[in-house]
Structures are given as C-alpha cells and as structure tokens.
Amino acid sequence: MITLPVEFDASARAQQLLVSQGIIRGEQQVEGIERVLGAAAWTYVAGAVSSVGSFFYFAYVVYSMVRRNR
Q: For residue 45, what are the contacts with CB-CB under 8 A and spacing of at least 6?
C-alpha cells in the first residue's frame, strides 16, 4: 500500500521528463505514454488488491481450522 502513491508519482514524473527532454513529441505520443505509464502504475494497485485478498483468504482458513478444533 505504501508504494502506490510512490508509483503514481514516478509515472507522472517520468511522463514530464520524457516530454521536457523532447523524447516524446506530439499529442498522439503524449496520449500513448499517459496510457502506458498509467497502466504500469495500476498494476501495483492490482497487486495490492490481490495481496489483501490472499491475506483474508488465509486468515479465514486459519480461523476455520481453529474454530473446528474447539
């Protein structure tokens, strides 16, 4: 969860750097880089959601085992 704001900020800074250095030119390229870097940042969100889901799944499994053994 801590890396999410860092990753979104890094994507925004990378886009600004690419445009300011003239590596990316034209509106079509800027739109493309926005989409690619945005998708890269959102992969961290998907990973965080997956990790939270896994945690709750395993917590439920452990809770069920403890409850069954009472």
A: 4
CA distances to 15, 22, 29 from 11, rounded to whole Å, are 6, 17, 15
- Report the distance separating Cα 7 and Cα 40, nearest Å: 9
pLDDT score at 2: 76
pLDDT tens track for 15-41: 999 999 999 889 999 999 999 998 988
DSSP letters of the chain? -THHHHHHHHHHHHHHHHHHTTSS-SHHHHHHHHHHHHHHHHHHHHHHHHHHHHHHHHHHHHHHHHHHT-
Q: Is the pTM of this model over 0.70?
A: no
